[in-house]
Design brief:
alpha+beta
Length: 196
């Protein structure tokens, strides 16, 4: 009797995994030339007015735990960006989604002249940018593909080539800025500088 439930449970898990894999594969295929991907490109081109900038979609998820007494609350804050990048220069453009439309906010342009430091890790897909007082300005992460999973993941975008290029860009840009500012970073998210 118990072994029957175990077998049924295993079959159900395998079935759900297959469905998830098929859905993800279909969404990734849709994302290769999706309207969302075209819109990100359009936004970067409109803001930068420079065809040399490559573009990529980026996100950041901030997780916090709070509360008092017996109550514990957790909060997830999701932020979305269109990013334009070329050697020595980075545009970060906040995105918002309303009824399927993608709109954008005020762009931030970064180069070695206006950044205090960059925290990242060689070969990784995230970057933290700090101002001249070493205060965080923006954090973002990129992925080779983004699929519509729920309301917090609102796009189908496949960006495998852009992903590789951006990971290389992060390493080069970090070296350029941090050498210019004579600073070393830890490569740990949220803890850029070694404690003295």
């Amino acid at each position: 009797m118990n072994s029957t439930y175990i077998i049924i449970g295993i079959i159900a898990v395998i079935f759900l995994a297959i469905i998830f894999y098929i859905k993800t594969t279909i969404d990734e295929k849709k994302g290769e030339n999706s309207e969302e991907k075209k819109r990100v490109k359009e936004i970067v081109e409109k803001v930068t007015k420079d065809s040399e900038y490559k573009n990529i979609y980026a996100t950041w998820e901030e997780f916090s735990i709070g509360g008092g007494g017996r109550t514990v609350t957790t909060t997830n804050i999701y932020t979305y960006y269109a990013v334009g990048f070329k050697p020595g220069s980075l545009y970060v453009i906040p995105l918002s989604f309303d009824g399927g439309d993608i709109s954008y906010g005020e762009a931030m342009k970064f180069d070695k002249e206006n950044i205090g430091m960059i925290n990242a890790k060689e070969g990784k897909n995230w970057i933290e940018i700090y101002d001249l007082e070493k205060k965080p300005v923006v954090k973002l992460m990129v992925g080779p593909s983004e699929t519509k999973e729920d309301k917090y993941h609102p796009v189908n975008i496949s960006q495998k080539e852009e992903y590789k290029e951006f990971c290389n860009f992060i390493s080069e840009f970090m070296r350029e800025v941090n050498t210019y500012r004579n600073v070393e970073v830890t490569g740990k998210i949220g803890r850029p500088l070694q404690k003295k």
